[in-house]
Here is the input.
Amino acid sequence: MRVYFDYNATTPPSPEVVERVAAVTQDVFGNASSVHHFGQEAKAALDEARSAVAALIGADPSEVVFTAGGTESDNFALRGAADALEPTGRRHLVATAIEHEAVLNTLKALARRGWRTTLVPVDQSGVVSPDRIREALADDTAIVSVMHANNEIGTIQPVAEIAALARARGALFHTDAVQSAGKVPINVKTLGVDLLSLSAHKFNGPKGAGILYVKRGTRMQPILTGGKHERNRRAGTENTAAIAGMGVAARQAVQKLETEAGRLAALRDRLESGILAAVPGTVVNGGSSLRVPNTTNISFDRVEAESLLIALDLEGIAVSTGSACSSGTLEPSHVLKAMGLPVHRTQNSLRFSLGLFSTQAEVDRVIETLPRLVEKLRSLTRSGVGAAR
Ligand code: PLP
Here is the structure.
């Protein structure tokens, strides 16, 4: 039995999504901008998907702009808003230190263009305090970007409260909701956001499709220039098949949200308490906070995360580490670092993320396998570098 517990990296598409992508690829090849029958068929497929994704986030379909995924949506939100707001003299951006690289590296790019950026840290529980955001806001703050749910530890951020603070200072508010779609309810009106990013492959849709929600009336410059697609907001012939697949995934996410959230929370809690009980020297990162139901991030004392990840993979169990292994050195996770955890805990943590096809048998297999692997790694490093950790 192979176990896939890396749903936050990507999810397998549901059978209905695969069916829709195949059918549209086969039968609906027209260009949605063409006026003839073939084009109108493609446009109808896009319209259907637009309504489905709009329903997932409580938006009007006209506020949904199709993109090639979460990274493009985050880039569009920040660069598109920055381009539109630059002439107003506002040149300051605020975000949290635990944002995804799609946001963090876009901020760096804007900083090279002369924008001031403020990264607000989170507390030990992995949540940003609205007060810290309030302190960071200035008269020239143009955009505030705070993710809805964190990809590494699953913590849910107080987005509605922060959005209100941003608005009160005349700034736009963007949230990267890539990790919350299909896991917790999302409503752009309740959250009070101007811009919101989603990515289809994180909620059992195809890769290479996403959306940016742009609240009606929000000033944005396109970042991809060309034809008049997406009401002049994103040029380029739409990826009809992937977008149609995203529409099906969005509909299924709405239908399954309640039952799936409960089922996943039970599985995740079973996994979490099972690991904590079976493996000494373990602690959950962000465990005391409100979290998406499918994610747990666990530190294993005196273990290097990358070694445990590889040992698990050899047993057929796929998980992830937030820290990146580059040229032999383990980069600490920027999220765990921002929480103020000691260095060893930023390098000894694994993320287990569950989803649609996860089962109790898989959870139990992981709980059963882990103690042996951890004990083996600890005995290997007992007198070596790991002992210091
Ligand atoms: N934002 C978050 C929070 C993510 O977890 C990811 C993917 O890992 C992205 C953005 C990027 O999305 P995509 O893979 O669709 O470009």
Observations:
- Residues 3-9+258-382 form a domain with the Aspartate Aminotransferase, domain 1 fold (CATH 3.90.1150.10).
- The pocket of pyridoxal-5'-phosphate is lined by residues 69-71, 74, 100, 102, 147, 151, 176, 178-179, 199, 201, 210 (CB under 6 Å).
- Confidence is low (pLDDT under 50) at residues 385-389.
- The chain has two domains: 3-9+258-382, 15-252.
